[in-house]
Structure formats: C-alpha cells, structure tokens
Amino acid sequence: MDLTRLTRVDSTTWRIEPHGAMRVPAIIYADESLIRDIDDKVYEQVSNVAALPGIVRASYAMPDAHWGYGFPIGGVAAFDPNEGGVVSAGGVGFDISCGVRTMLTGLPVADILAEQRPLADELFRQIPAGVGSKGSISLEADQMDAMLAGGARWAVDEGWGEARDLERIEEEGAMAGAQPEHVSKRAKERQRREMGTLGSGNHYLEVQGITEIYDAAAAEAFGLKQEEAVVTIHCGSRGLGHQIGTEFLKEMVISAEAAGIELPDRELACAPINSEVGQRYLGAMRAGINCALANREILGHYARRVFRHVFPACDLKLLYDVSHNTCKVEPHSANGEPCGLFVHRKGATCAFGPGHPSLPEALRSIGQPVLIGGSMGTSSYILAGTASSEEKAFSSACHGAGRAMSRHAALKRWSGRMILDELTAQGILIRSPSSRGVAEEAPGAYKDVGVVVAAAEHAGLARRIARLRPLICIKG
C-alpha cells in the first residue's frame, strides 16, 4: 500500500482522511510490515464503506484485512438507524455467523500424541467435511424453522449438545429477532442435510496444544494450561447463509437506488435499517446466525462423542463460541451519546472488555475470549477483549491471519500432497477429502498470524493470553 496516502497516528494506527464521498475517516490497524503488504483494494474498500449513510465514527480495518466483497474482510462499521443508517449484506458476508468455538480437553498433549492417528481417523470419519458435505441429520420444514429460531438452544433440546454450553456462547446460544419466514425455501432446502457439517474452504476442526501462556491469571480463569490440548472448530451457516446473502444482495441493489443512496461500489448494496428490505434482511440474517450457532453446537457434540470413545474419562468443556460475520445491535456511543448501533463485523470478532454485561460471570473480570485461528499448520491464539477496544473499533478485533495470496495463486505454487507431507513431517496430521482444498489453504498463502496478533495487541484491540499449535486438523 502507498503509505503517502495515509496519516500515521501511531505504530499500529493508520488514518485515511475523509475525501470524496467519505462521511467519516477510515482507520487501518496494522504495523508497518503489514500495512506495506496490504492490497490497495483494502484502501479503496475501507474508504468506500466510510461513504455509506449513517456511519458512525469511522470505517475500520483489522490487522488481518484483505480484499472482500464490498467490505474488506476484517472490516468493521457501525450505523445509526436514527441518522439514516443502513444494513449491508456485503458487510456481513456470505457465510453468515462463520465463527470459532474452543473446547477444553483437560488432557496432556502427550496423551493426544499417544493416540494421534486413531483420534485423527475417528474425527475424520465422524465429522462430515468438504464441498457440499451432508450429515446424518435431515430437517423437515417445522424442524428447520425451529432450528432457525432456536440456534444452539434448539440443538441442545434435540440432544446434540449440552445445556452448560449456552452461557459460553454469544447471545446465550440463540440470536433474538430471528425470522425464519424471511429465509427462502431455496436457502432452507440447501441446509436441510448440512447441519453438523464443516463445509470447505478455510473451515476446520483442529486439536491443538497450548504451547505458551502470556497471562497466567487470565489463562487460569479461561481454564488454559500449558501443554494441555484444546479442540477448536471453525465454520458457519453453510449453504443457508450463502443463499441469504446472495438473494438479499440482489434486492439491496434495487433498494439502495430507491432510497436515493449513491453506492461507490455496487458490491456495497445496502438498505436503510428501518426499511422493509432492511428489516426482512435482519430477520433472515439473525436466523442465519442461529443456524451457525446450532451447527457449531452439533459439531461440538460430535467431537465430544469421539473424544469419549478414545479417552473415556475426557469431558470437553466449552471455553467460548463467537461469530465473526454478523450485524448486531449493540450499545455504543454516537456523538457522545449512548445509543443502539448496528455493528457490522465481516471477518472480525467482537472483543468485549472486562465487566461487559454479556459475558458469563466466570469470564467477566478478564474480558471476552477472542479466538484467533491460524492457517493450517501454524499457530492459533486465544486473546481477551480490552476496555480500550470499545473506543478503538466498537469492541472488535481481528479473526485470523488473513490471506496473503489468492486460492488460485496457492494452487499454482503448492500441491496438496506437498503440503500434507510437509505437515506430517512436523508432527501435524491432516485429514481432508480434497487435495485441492489442502493446497488452497497452504500455510504460506496466509499472513504471519503471530505478527497479526501482535499488531492487534499493540493497537489495544485485544491482549494475548495463550498460543496454540496444531496436532490434528480436519479440513474441508
């Protein structure tokens, strides 16, 4: 990126001054090495978001930001409904409520390594993964609507989860305001056999070892112990979320024009929050959030089943489950006054600081667990939200490493077999139905997650608690 177009605020904060149609500045959080490598398209997209009606404070990009559809991936923006604010399907993304759940095994890494191969094989056998993957669950129309309204609570009620999980899931497992009637028949049909499946792309289930603790007190509160293992699941709302996004983006192109909104980019199609289209999208999108919460709860149930088979005394306890592709109403300040803002996070996670009322009591004094996935074969991190993140970016942080190379470019450079052999030599077992998918997700196709996380910490978005290394990875 051309740094002459930016104002450097500090070592990890870069400001794009309002120009053209921008209503507010744009802020990019990154250290100098990251900012130099960020695609110029991110500059364009984060500036375009700043031109949307009703935007508050600034348009933000996280340290893992890269080019996306309309909004950059790693983009955060909040809109005031009382000032003509909009909701944008592109600001949420196609994989609605894609997110991460981390579960504590209580097992030493040595125990995992002693059963590494049979554990990997059993996880791969039990958990459907890959493009178009189908599970054993098949939902009829009434069950589908119940799932879209009930989220993880529905999954628990149906026997695919545990009630103790719910307080450790955002929105306590069920997003209020979901309206299944605004989800199309096509979207529901696509999801009918996809509950309890990982899907493809960068989605995974990973068994990880805790290799480094940065904050002993916070780690203890989170239940993290060095050289113990955790299970992390990364997936979202599968075909249903994609269909919702596809359909509403087409509608929003028309609704934006009807509302007199001049879009700097057609991909930023949006609708006024209080419009009929905006309200229908919010109802459908919230149903998509519940779909993803239910899906991760079911996958957590499957993981528990496998671990209890291999380690009969093992009791997987949920640390936290949080999404990173959402639009949610949250209390923040606008022009010095508290109000409910519609916060879009696309490839960014909420990172509520200590004392936030949404956090379970056991975590409230520390702050929200912020779960940062690395790329296949590299470290992942657990962070905690900070008080400063509210002012920095509406209590938001990065969600992963961020791609540095397109999937097409990765395929040109690596083969799936090459990656599998390299990772096996490092003691990491990969199980995937797709050699192509492994190549597309090669570790080298991503930014250095350690650098990204350090930048997020230095920027005051979240603070590091623990570093994890992969032992087993089930990839779509």
Briefly say what this structure is.
The chain is an alpha+beta fold.
Structural commentary:
The chain is α+β, with helices and mostly antiparallel strands and 476 residues long. It has a single domain, classed as tRNA-splicing ligase RtcB (Alpha-Beta Complex), CATH 3.90.1860.10. 34% of the residues lie in helices and 25% in strands. It has 15 helices and 19 strands. It has helices at residues 32-37, 40-49, 109-114, 116-126, 141-157, 185-191, 216-222, 238-258, 276-310, 361-364, 389-393, 407-413, 416-425, 435-440, 449-458; strands spanning 7-10, 13-16, 26-29, 59-66, 73-79, 86-87, 99-108, 204-213, 228-235, 271-272, 317-323, 325-334, 337-346, 348-350, 369-372, 380-385, 396-398, 429-431, 462-475. Strands 7, 8, 9, 11, 15, 16, 18 and 19 form an eight-stranded mixed beta sheet that branches. Strands 1-2-3-4-5-13-12 form a seven-stranded mixed beta sheet, with helices on both faces. A hairpin with a 2-residue loop joins strand 1 (7-10) and strand 2. Helix 4 crosses helix 9 (276-310), helix 5 (141-157) crosses helix 9 (276-310) and helix 6 runs antiparallel to helix 8. The longest helix has 35 residues, at 276-310. The chain starts with 6 loop residues before the first strand and ends with a strand. The relative contact order is 0.18.
